[in-house]
Amino acid sequence: MSLYDSQTIKIYNSLSGEKEIFNPINEGYIGMYVCGPTVYSNVHLGNVRTFMSFDMIFRYLKHLGYKVRYVRNITDAGHLENDADLGEDKITKKARVEEIEPMEVVQRYTVDFHNVLNILNFLPPSIEPTATGHIIEQIELIKSIIDNGFAYVINGSVYFDVHKYNETNEYGVLSKRKLEDLIHNTRTLDGQSDKKNPQDFALWKKAEPTHIMRWPSPWSDGFPGWHLECTAMSTKYLGDYFDIHGGGMDLKFPHHECEIAQNCAAKGNDPVKYWMHANMLELNGARMSKSTGNYINPAELFSGDNTIMSKGFSPEVIRFFMMQASYRSILDLTNNGLLASEKGFFRLMDAINIIDDLKTSNSSSFNVIEWKQKCYDAMNDDFNTPILIATLFDAAKFINQVKDGSATVTKEDLELLKQTLHTFSFDVLGLVNVSKESSGSDKLSGAVEILINLRKEARLNKDFALSDKIRDELAEVGIKLNDSREGTTYTTN
Ligand code: AMP
Ligand code: ZN
């Protein structure tokens, strides 16, 4: 018997708009596809949040004993500006601006993406396919869609015929949009497009002579549409019907809607049983986004080298902060929120780290078995990590009571408590056990605060030689002081 036999998971399925009991298509096996990054710039914390939500889900499903094949792609071609059919390819544009090869752009930001995810203790997916590695599969899909009468060719480009499709299928099933409303709300195009209708979308685009990333096809030398690559890669590795498809909420329409339409048009079915969407990370009350400039990169948050936070925060604290919100809620990244998470994180780790020093007795004043099931119940309820963390804190509180003698625990219960805390904190949430002492962050910030105050005194005494010496020598060991009207903060590198 596997652990999953004793636990019933409910997943919020965006398609039905309800929490549904999770039953995998093949018992014991799960196929999960998550839309990966477009590697044209450094990944920001908003992107990280979506991938971390699915990392947590992957971890929990694995913990339950499922054999999970987790596919997360790399978009290295075909994603045009504004997520639309006009405009420049995001990667090509970056290559032009930086005067490097598009594949250099791809390499640089794929490496950055992996580095950031490693630092944040992500598990690697089972397969990480690239769009450019699956051009043939995409061409085959387009042929099927054309053969079935749902796409048309104009001037070397191929477009999906949304109106034709909607005659026999429902375009908008996932996003709950109606084609009539879409027609009503779309401005007429400015004549640059060959499309029959503005709602149609590109499956294949003929490349302009200057477009570097191009492949031969029956229709033109060109490149595939962004939506198509996910249909090709998900079904190639997970089959024509698979369990979970995830991505950020912003991808529900048009990206995922188009994925459904493409697969239905090519093969007659929506390939996905459970559609899952992770909610957005906000900064200053607005969605974090590269295009609006409202974003912060992970490195800037780790080092404290930014104008938003009072100091740097460790990767463990950032992970804990994100896990304190449900993956389906909007989360606002704030200095106070991170400071509170830092405290909470160390409180939990401190409790875990004193377990081995506790005295045991012959009775327990805490029902560990019931508590353990509460941890599972939280995760079974659509991966409710904030409830899980609150439940972990119940145990931390009990551990502190045992320490100060106001509660008792048996040896067996203590062992089960320890094991369960480790499982949920490290295996499922993906936290890393860093104690306050070993992280050194507290001692370091204490010492730097002392030096900042000494420097302030020196300046008040007009001893600028000493104040400069403190600043310069700290800089030499990698601690940079930043003066502002609010006072002095520091960053480390
Ligand atoms: P992109 O590289 O723009 O294709 O985005 C990669 C992933 O990050 C997608 O799944 C997006 O939904 C997700 N994403 C983008 N911005 C945010 C945000 N502010 N919060 C959470 N996820 C985001
Ligand atoms: Zn996708």
Question: Could you write a compact summary of the structure shown?
Answer:
The chain is an alpha/beta fold.
Any key phrases for this structure?
17 helices, 45% helix, 4-stranded parallel β-sheet, single chain, binds zinc ion, Isoleucyl-tRNA Synthetase, Domain 1, binds adenosine monophosphate, 493 residues
Description:
The protein has 493 residues and is an alpha/beta fold. It has 3 domains: 13-278, Rossmann fold; 282-438, Isoleucyl-tRNA Synthetase, Domain 1; 440-492. Helix content is 45%, strand content 14%. The chain has 17 helices and 15 strands. It has helices spanning 45-63, 90-98, 102-119, 135-147, 162-168, 179-185, 226-238, 252-267, 298-303, 315-323, 335-354, 368-380, 385-403, 411-428, 436-439, 441-460, 464-476; strands at residues 10-13, 18-21, 29-34, 67-72, 151-154, 157-160, 201-206, 222-224, 242-248, 272-278, 281-283, 286-287, 331-333, 479-484, 487-492. The strands form 5 sheets. It has a 4-stranded parallel beta sheet, sandwiched between helices. A 4-stranded antiparallel beta sheet has the order 5-6-7-8. Strands 12-11-13 form a 3-stranded mixed beta sheet. α7 crosses α8 and α16 runs antiparallel to α17. The two termini are 49 Å apart. 41% of the residues are buried. Bound molecules: adenosine monophosphate (AMP) and zinc ion. The site of zinc ion has 4 residues, from loops.
Element layout with pairings:
Blueprint: E1 10-13, E2 18-21, E3 29-34, H1 45-63, E4 67-72, H2 90-98, H3 102-119, H4 135-147, E5 151-154, E6 157-160, H5 162-168, H6 179-185, E7 201-206, E8 222-224, H7 226-238, E9 242-248, H8 252-267, E10 272-278, E11 281-283, E12 286-287, H9 298-303, H10 315-323, E13 331-333, H11 335-354, H12 368-380, H13 385-403, H14 411-428, H15 436-439, H16 441-460, H17 464-476, E14 479-484, E15 487-492
Parallel strand pairs: 3-4, 3-9, 9-10, 11-13
Antiparallel strand pairs: 1-2, 5-6, 6-7, 7-8, 11-12, 14-15
Helix pairs in contact: 2-3, 4-7, 4-8, 7-8, 10-11, 11-13, 12-13, 12-14, 13-14, 16-17
Bound molecules: adenosine monophosphate and zinc ion.
